[in-house]
Design a protein that fits this description.
Blueprint (H helix, E strand, L loop, with lengths): L2 H10 L2 H6 L10 E4 L1 H8 L3 H6 L3 E3 L5 E4 L8 E2 L2 E2 L9 H5 L2 E4 L2 E4 L4 H4 L4 H9 L3 E4 L5 E4 L4
Parallel strand pairs: 7-8
Antiparallel strand pairs: 1-3, 2-3, 4-5, 6-7, 8-9
Length: 148
Amino acid sequence: MDVEKLADKARNSISSFCMNECKSYCCRKGYLIVNDKQIATVTAGNEANLLKNKSLKLLPSGDFSVDLNNGGCPSLKDNKCIIHKHKDRPKTCQDFPIFIEGKKIGLSGRCPAVQQRKFYPYILQFLEKGYIVKESSCFDKTVNSMEK
């Protein structure tokens, strides 16, 4: 099994946990950066109202920042993502909480499933494939490594 498929399997393994226990924390806290193609998908065409409420900001780069701290992601309904299968869903949403960068696997320390070590069986498989696994998407805290 290639690393992308393994990461998807790991992400799928926590679906019930995300909806029922953590209540989709990642979709309710922080900020989501989206491009102009993704903004209509994420906001369901409600950009004007989000701009008015200051939950959406245009960044100097031309991207948008969606504030998830006040009511969560506009695409979140009953702790479920209504755009989960949409082709224009942001890559961050697709990848969270496991990010692959070269031979490194980053696990977001913000994710309750990561904090509760729900990915332990998958971490072992990543390590067996020769990947370096680190907690935090910025790769600053090593969980474990097979490097000598």
